[in-house]
Each structure stands twice: as C-alpha cells, then as structure tokens.
Amino acid sequence: MEMVVVSDALDKLFEGLPERLGIDDLTRVLGLADRTVTYRWLRDGIVPAIKLGKTWLILRDDVKAHLRSQYNVPHSTDNDGAQANDE
What we know:
The structure is a single chain. The chain has helices spanning 9-14, 23-30, 35-43, 60-69, and strands at residues 20-21, 50-52, 55-59. It is globular and about 50 Å long. With 87 residues, it is α+β, with helices and mostly antiparallel strands. The protein has a domain at 12-69. The termini are close together. A hairpin with a 2-residue loop joins strand 2 and strand 3. Helix 2 (23-30) packs across helix 3. Residues 21-70 form the Helix-turn-helix domain. Pfam families: HTH_17 (PF12728). This is Helix-turn-helix domain-containing protein. InterPro entries: HTH_17 (IPR041657), SinI_DNA-bd (IPR010093).
C-alpha cells in the first residue's frame, strides 16, 4: 500500500497561532463566513473542542490533527481509471 504524505500547508496555516485558539482565530483559519458558523461547527462536533460552561476550549494541535485526518486522498486505480479492488 502506497503511503500518501500530507501537505505541510496545515502547518503553515496554523503557524503563529497560540496553542489555545479563540473563536475568531478558528473562524479565520477555517475560512468560515462568521462566528455563528464556527459556533455551529463546534456545537455539532465538526471541529474538536471542549465546552466548559459557556466557554469553548479549542486546542490548535487537536484541530490541526483532526483536519489532517480528514484529508481526502486519491485511491489507487487500474489502467482504465476504475478503482482497484485490493481485497
């Protein structure tokens, strides 16, 4: 099985951000429309975070690891473009 190397783009995207992100940091880094969308994504578990009372604890490295795990990588294909069956 071929190993796919994930781009360093995430490292650059999160470069210079504090270990603990604020709502505005997360909104900006994810390119979301506004804070309302960010809160919805947090509430729905799309982005990993911990809610403590009314405050969200958003850890930069947890978000980065989650995004890295969500990369869609190309599957191997045979010569005619059909997905190969590796079973």
